[in-house]
TrEMBL record:
Keywords tagged on the record: Ribonucleoprotein, Ribosomal protein
Name of the protein in question: 60S ribosomal protein L40
Matches recorded under InterPro entries: Rrn7_cyclin_C
Species of the source: Blumeria graminis f. sp. tritici 96224
Gene Ontology cellular-component terms listed: ribosome
Annotated ranges, domain Rrn7/TAF1B C-terminal cyclin: 30-193
Length: 331
């Protein structure tokens, strides 16, 4: 949330602050997600190296569920996220580094969103290839219609401001605002710039234009219900697939869920559906789409390394069994 941070400081302390602190705590531009993530990690490093304080790990189940819900994904994504995290040995703690160089996966919330993206790509790929689930209880029995998903997730988003746009409003923009945008802007101004304990507005103005109370708990609950409604609409628009137990399944011709997995190295490699999903997922953690693409690709390389190592172990095991068999037959 964009806010004039100096407002949070108690008035008794605020009156004694030097002018340069006011400037430092003032809001000059919308927050940049990548920059904010790095500054948080720098702060965590500072607390560790100077005070030996360690921050607790993220509340992974709750945060994962929130992101899954915000992205309109089925709840079956969560077990896949847990399984992938277990395979890769991913933790969700704030890693303390002795160097200032941090990769995209240095941030714990990025690891969560990357796992969600990969789990989604495995079970709900963005291409049109037919992948046949094993039975009717398979989590992939319902396939998301990504065009319908995009339409449902972005409906009514053109109404009002996007987060952070209020800061860029100029006086000339007022003439082009509708009622919704004006209300949003005034609410944002009250929340960000006015001190309700001491608003510094004349009583005469307040009599004609009283300050309204900010968003209530009931309104926040309403937003949660709207997210649930979107999930229901997405499920209703999903495609019910026929499991292999109900048809003649040919292993040589038919694909299983997870087969023909596609990795995207750069933003330009994304298909339209993938770009829509990546962009929406990136917005949930406040980073750019290209940053998320790089992070997901790095984690996919880790999964590929794990698969290669597993195959190597299986081959070595087979070789040892064959060697033992040859020795016993020779005897």
């Amino acid at each position: 949330m964009l806010m004039k941070k100096v407002r949070i400081i108690p008035i008794e302390m605020r009156t004694k602050l030097p002018a340069y602190f006011y400037s430092a705590l003032g809001m000059k531009a919308p927050l940049n997600g990548n920059h904010l993530q790095r500054k948080i990690m720098d702060l965590i490093d500072l607390y560790y190296f100077h005070f030996k304080m360690i921050f607790p790990p993220l509340n992974t189940p709750l945060l994962s569920y929130k992101h899954i819900q915000d992205l309109g994904l089925p709840v079956e994504i969560y077990p896949a996220v847990k399984r992938l995290a277990s395979i890769l040995g991913v933790n969700f703690s704030f890693d303390v580094l002795s160097t200032s160089i941090r990769g995209p996966l240095s941030f714990p919330e990025m690891r969560i969103i990357c796992l969600i993206v990969i789990a989604t790509k495995l079970s709900q790929p963005f291409d049109s290839l037919e992948r046949i689930p094993e039975n009717s209880s398979d989590p992939t029995i319902l396939k998301i219609d990504w065009k319908a998903w995009f339409k449902i997730m972005h409906e009514n988003q053109e109404i009002g401001f996007k987060k952070g746009e209020e800061l860029n409003v100029r006086d000339t923009d007022v003439w082009n605002m509708d009622d919704v945008k004006i209300d949003q802007y005034l609410d944002w101004f009250q929340k960000s710039w006015l001190d309700e304990r001491k608003p510094k507005i004349s009583e005469l103005i307040l009599d004609h234009f009283p300050l309204q109370s900010q968003r209530s708990y009931e309104e926040e609950i309403g937003e949660t219900e709207r997210r649930f409604d979107k999930q229901i609409l997405i499920q209703e628009a999903s495609i019910l697939q026929t499991p292999s137990s109900s048809i003649e399944y040919d292993k040589s011709k038919n694909l299983r869920p997870g087969a023909m997995y596609i990795r995207y190295r750069a933003l330009g490699d994304l298909t339209e559906e993938a770009k829509n999903f990546y962009g929406h997922a990136a917005s949930k953690v406040g980073v750019s789409t290209s940053f998320l693409v790089r992070a997901v690709f790095q984690m996919e390389i880790q999964i590929e390394s794990w698969l290669t190592a597993n195959k190597k172990k299986e081959l070595e095991k087979l070789r040892s069994l064959n060697t033992e068999g040859d020795k016993s037959s020779a005897v």
